[in-house]
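--- STAGE predict ---
source: upstream dedup step, 1 unique chain passed
mode: sequence only
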Amino acid sequence: MDKIIYFDNAATSYPKPEGVIQAMALFSHEVGANPGRSGHRLSIEAGRIVYQARERVTQLFGHADSSRVIFGLNATEGINQGLQGLLRPGDHVITSSMEHNSVMRPLRALEKEGVAVTVVVCSPEGFLDPQDVRRAIKKKTKMVVLNHGSNVVGTLQPLAEVGEICRRQGVLFFVDAAQTAGSVHINMEGEKIDLLAFTGHKALFGPPGTGGLVVGERVEEKEIIPVKKGGTGSRSELEEQPDFLPDLGESGTPNTVGIAGLLAGINFVLKEGVERIRSHELGLTELLLQGLADIPGVTIYGPKNARRQVSTLSFNIQGMAPSEVGWRLDEEFGILCRVGLHCSPSSHRTIGTFPEGTVRFGLGYLNTESEVRQALQAVRQLARKG
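--- STAGE serialize ---
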């Protein structure tokens, strides 16, 4: 493969730490069994890996009970389980105008079934005012669902403030941590988060097909309707779905080889330290922001403040479509990024870039200052020609 600079970590992290690859290979070579379905030694070992992964998830997110971690394919599946599993016709839910379609599409579907949805409009930089959430709460408000970090412009939302408002009002607080899990500190207890959806393949450095939902203690497990039903390896004498966590949300054979990789990825994050990861990404983001701001013809969107965002940044070059910029960055400079609407049309309407979208650089912990400087030079050359 030709030399590349990978700036698409907001979509999925690459490369993966060597330990992640080794853990998946080791599972495939030496374990390979189905966890919780059999009593033999390999099944028990597979179950041990899944259990250990649950323990690491709760350690990372400041949650006490690993049995309340539901593993699934990604944050999207976790979000669907949380929304469809808890919202009923007549309920009211609040969200923001900076949400990914993983939140918006399930909510729009639930809206057709009788769930009332309020979208609180964020600032052009993508920020939510917690008081707007407070004012939107009604008697029938069941839940506030909010992303932690924007996948378009990186904006970090005030979780602690919103969590406090929700707790005082008796409303569930559901956080989409797809863009922040592993790179920004999260404490479910401290920030009063009742449900947290996470994905494994981004800043947790796991493989695709891993992620899930962490269910807080205030959520009654018997109130959750599972979005899929089937074999769980437990209560096999019953033809009804188990009503206890995590089994009620984990039907079918799990992606155990993926969970082994996820476990290794979380161990990598815990060993490096979230604060160290955050510090490195802050430095890269500051360098990128400063460099892009100095290039004539480049428009940057979002906070333009590394401390108020994740290491995801959107920009456009005057006179060039985002699609052309992305194609030329790839073909001429070997810089891989994402262009367009990034599965979040509401965000682009909020920041004023709909329907064309933006060029998005998603930096990650394994990127370097040298790569950022090379990317800035590439954008500078394109802007001269644009």
